[in-house]
Amino acid sequence: MESYWIALLFTVFFSWVLTSRNVKCGYLQYGKVTFNRVAISFLPLFLVALFRWNVGVDVVYGTGYYFQEYTAIQAGRGNILGYEIGFYLLMEICNALHMNLYLFYCVVTTIFFALFYKYLTENSKNIVLCAIIFFTSDLYLFTFSTLRQSLGIAFFLYPLTEIINRRKFLKNWKWWVCTGIAISMHISIMYLIVVLLLSRVKFRKKTVLYITILGCGLSPLIQVLLSKILSFTIYFKKYFGSNEFRIEFTPTYFLIALLIFIPVYFYYDKIIKEGENNYILVNVSAFVVVLMLNSQVLVMPYRIFPLFVPVYLILCSKLVACLRRSRIIKVLTCVYLIVPFLFLFINQYYIGGGSDVFVYKSIFQFMNQIW
């Protein structure tokens, strides 16, 4: 785990040097954010991800699902695990280019980070805060093993930006193409699409609060409805009754969603002044509160929460940006926003008994397996 923390520290340092600066008036200003600066800032985390091997149960050499599928493709046996068509075709293309399994992982990692850099460049000026939340929210280590869903999230970052920033995004053919690719990587992207489309309905500030409270109060009814809807999905049928299906309430995700929603709602008017469509981000944060309160009926809630981390990255960035106060207030706000995610990280990787990605292993330890 030390490798991850060291990489994060260097990423935060590079982000601060390249994208942030302090001015004499005491306010925290931000330098110009470009794709190259973001890429350089995240280089430590990217390299750690790029040189990993056997980190994550699904990618373990010999037994991991991706090893089984890629081996089957190399042997001409096709899509034996029934992966989404987009991800399967990507594996086929890499195999046709005579890439081994490690090079395939490199392709997936590079695609994710490249699209992630572009997303941050277009939507955030607070790269330091985004880097810390990206890591502590578990989205970073999430990409080590859940390759399909990570690519789905990455390809949906452009449609996400369009939904937030444009009214007539449905007329943009790029939106349809990227959304189609994202869903073809992992069907769970449909969760995010539904929540985002519902969040485009604009409400008054008090109405947002009333709907959130009402949604929490109607949780028993919502759980019944979600169970009925999800019972028709492939993943519900696949995981229900297995060890991977969690039927218990997961309080950590709910607490994070609630702790983020509170200051966001308090500064609702200021956030809206920063951008007229920022209400969509606030609505999403309210939806996640209700959704995570009903996490016991979700198929693997730890797979659902990372879908909304890209929204949180931008929302937290905009929240700090709307504060026209002293640097101390901004820093304290950043700390407040980071603490819930940090608690999630500590609970999952230290208190929760470890994880399959807890111990970092690099390609240099397994050269005989790779080549």
Q: In terms of structural class, how would the helical and strand content be classed?
A: mainly alpha
Radius of gyration: 21 Å
Describe the main β-sheet briefly: 2 strands, antiparallel
Count the beta strands.
Answer: 2
Mean pLDDT: 85
Uncertain segments: 22-30, 241-246
Dominant shape: globular
Helix content: 55-70%
Order of helices and strands: HEEHHHHHHHHHHHHHHHHHHHHH
Q: Would you mind describing this structure in some detail?
A:
By secondary structure, this protein is an all-alpha fold. Residues 22-30 and 241-246 have low confidence and may be disordered. Helix 1 packs antiparallel against helix 2 (35-41). A two-stranded antiparallel sheet has the order 1-2. The longest helix is centred in the C-terminal third of the chain and has 25 residues, at 327-351. Strand 1 (20-22) and strand 2 (28-30) form a beta hairpin. It is globular, with a radius of gyration of 21 Å. It has helices spanning 2-19, 35-41, 43-50, 65-74, 85-96, 101-123, 127-136, 139-145, 147-155, 157-165, 173-185, 189-199, 205-217, 219-230, 234-239, 251-266, 268-274, 279-293, 301-304, 309-321, 327-351, 367-370, and strands at 20-22, 28-30. It is built from 22 helices and 2 strands.
